[in-house]
Amino acid sequence: MQKELHEENRRSWNVATDAHNSHKGDQASFFRHGGNKLYLEEKELLGEITGLSVVHLLCNAGQDTLSLAQMGAVVTGVDISDTAIAFARTLSADSGVPATFYRMDVYDWLEEAAKEGQQFDLVFCSYGAIHWLSNLSVWVRGVATVLKTGGRFITVDYHPVMAMFDEHLNRKFPYFRKNMAVTMENGIPDYVAARGKGLPNTSYVEGIKDFKNPYRAYRFPWGIGEIITALLEGGLRLTHFQEYPHANGDKPFLHMENSGHSWSLPDDQPTMPLMYAIVADKPL
Ligand SMILES: C[S@@+](CC[C@H](N)C(=O)[O-])C[C@H]1O[C@@H](n2cnc3c(N)ncnc32)[C@H](O)[C@@H]1O
User: Fold this and answer.
1) Which end of the chain is more exposed for a tag (fewer CB within 10 A), N or C?
2) pLDDT in tens, 67-80
3) Are 118 and 146 in contact (CB under 8 A)?
4) Residue-wise over 236-255: b if at least 16 C-beta within 10 A, else e?
5) Residue 33 Cα, ligand 1 centroid: separation in angstroms?
6) Beta-carbon-side half-sphere exposure of residue 30 (alpha carbons within 13 Å)
7) For residue 192, what pLDDT is reported?
8) What is the pTM of this model?
9) What pLDDT score was predicted for residue 200?
10) What are phi and psi of 219, to 5 degrees?
11) Which residue CA neighbors atom 27 of ligand 1 most closely?
12) Quick one: which atom of ligand 1 is closest to the CA of 134?
C-alpha cells in the first residue's frame, strides 16, 4: 500500500469535491423528494435491496450512498476525503435520508471493520473507485472479510482501456502499468464543470469558476485481468462481467455523443469498452 500517495489524494479530493458540489444545486431537496442518482446499470445489478446492509466504498460526498438508502438498504459510506464525508453527513441530515459515514482510508476502515466483526450483505463501489486503490489483493481480502457468506460485491466502473488514450483518442498510454502509479500533475480536475451536468433532473449551477487544484493526485489504473484475478484469488466467485460502449457521468474524449448523463463515441467511429460491471459473491 502507498499510504503517502493516498494522503496526497485526500488533499486533492478535498478541494475538488468542494468544486464539484458547487455545481449541483439543492441536493438536500433532490433527496428529500425521493431523488436517486444511480444509473440503470447498477440498479439492475443491485436488484431488490430493501433491508440489506450495504457498504459503499470510496463513496465521495455520499450521493450514491443516499441513493442506495432510497432503495431501502441500510447504508454505510467510507471515503478518505474530509470535505466529502463532511458534505455527506450534512446531506444525510438535511435530506432526512439515513446513512452512516466514515472518513477513513478504505484500507484502514476494512481492517477496523474486520476486527470489529462487521459484515454486510453487499459491498458496492462505482465510477472512478478502483483506480485509487494502491494494492488490489489487500483490498479484496478486506472486502471478502466484511462480506457475509453469500453476500455480493458489485461494481460498475470506467474501463481501464479508456486510460490508454488522450482526449483526442490518440493511443498514448500503456495498458499494462506494472503496479506503477500514474501522477496527475494538476490533481483532480473539476470534471463536473467540464461536462456541464449536475444531478439528474436538476439544473447545473455555475458555482466555483476556473478551478485549479493545488494538489497532485496518484491513480493506479489496474487492468481488467488484474481486477478479476485479485477478486478470484481473494476467494470471491465471479458471477457477472459486462462491458459497455458508453460512459455514465463522464466524457473522456472531446468528440462524443451525449444522451442525458451518458456519453458514447459517434456512430462513425469503431466502438470500444468505456465501462465494465462486475458482480462476485462470497461462496458458502
Ligand atoms: C470518483 S470518486 C467516487 C465517486 C462515487 N462513484 C460516488 O458515489 O460519488 C473517488 C473517491 O475515492 C476516494 N478515495 C480515493 N482514495 C481513497 C482511499 N484510499 N480510501 C478511501 N477513499 C478514497 C476519494 O476521496 C473520492 O471521493
Assistant:
1) C
2) 999 999 999 999 99
3) yes
4) beeeeeeebebbbbbbbbee
5) 26
6) 20
7) 84
8) 0.95
9) 65
10) -110, 160
11) 60
12) 19
> Average pLDDT, stretch 263-279?
95
CA–centroid distance, 206 to ligand 1, in Å, is 23
Decide if 110 contacts 76 (C-beta within 8 A): no
Ligand 1 first shell, C-beta below 6 A: 6, 9, 13, 58-60, 63-64, 79-81, 84, 105-106, 126-129, 132
| Residue 271 DSSP label | -
Report the candidate in 63, 255, 252, 92 with the shortest Cα–Cα distance to residue 172: 252
What is the rounded distance in angstroms from the CA atom of residue 247 to the CA atom of residue 228? 20
The answer on pLDDT for 195 being more than 80 is no
| CA 8 to centroid of ligand 1, rounded, Å | 13
Answer whether 240's CB lies under 8 Å from 278's CB: yes
Which residue type is seen at 189? P
For residues 191 and 210, give the distance between their C-alpha atoms in angstroms, rounded to a whole number: 11
Task: Say if residue 202 is exposed, middle or buried (CB neighbours under 10 Å; 0-12, 13-18, 19+).
Answer: middle
CA angle 232, 234, 235 (to 5 degrees): 70
Distance in Å, CA 60 to ligand 1 centroid: 5
Beta-carbon contacts of residue 108 (< 8 Å; ≥ 6 apart) = none
User: Do the beta carbons of residue 213 and residue 253 sit within 8 Å?
Assistant: no
List the grid coordinates of 225.
485481468
Gap from CA of 231 to ligand 1 centroid (Å): 19
Half-sphere exposure (Cβ direction) of 61: Cα atoms closer than 13 Å = 20
